[in-house]
Amino acid sequence: MTPRRTLLARGEDADVFAIDETRVLRRYRLRAVLEREVAIMRYVRDRGYPAPRVIDVSGLDLTLERIGGPTMLADLWRRPWRFRTHALTLARLHRELHTVPPLSWLRDRFVRAFLGGFAPAEWRVSLDRAVAYRRADGNVSDKERDRLTRLRL
């Protein structure tokens, strides 16, 4: 029998439960944990980015290090005047994440995967037009032209 766990959060496709004081369980509802998701979490953490440590992966379950403290949302409910502080923290974290060099297998696929999975169709059309325009520029190096070719969707 599975022990009863306390629900900490409910997201769009997963629930997060407390296991104990040091671990949480992220249980996906409709899909298995993606290997690339775990690889990215481990990769950025190994390079100093503040991501939780991955402890175990099994089917729909991802066991992670538990990070203590209130959520930004909970803090904003209590102290709404701290909005700017939290916004600056999120901006800093995004800047720091962009300093981590991408994984080699992610470099060429990220834009296509993002646009294919999340962006509206008109963004994909606009990207194709922008890439074609840039490739037509006589000042573009062969290396950049090759990279632009790989961006095509």
Short note summarizing the structure:
The chain has 153 residues and is an alpha+beta fold. The chain is 47% helix and 17% strand.
Helices and strands in order, then pairings?
Blueprint: E1 6-10, E2 14-18, E3 23-28, H1 35-46, E4 54-58, E5 61-65, H2 72-78, H3 83-98, H4 104-107, H5 110-117, H6 121-135, H7 142-151
Helix pairs in contact: 6-7
Features:
47% helix, 153 residues, 7 helices, alpha+beta, extended
Walk me through what this model shows.
With 153 residues, the chain is of the alpha+beta class. The protein is 47% helix and 17% strand. It contains 7 helices and 5 strands. Strands 1-2-3-5-4 form a 5-stranded antiparallel beta sheet, covered by helices on one side. Helix 6 runs antiparallel to helix 7. It is extended.
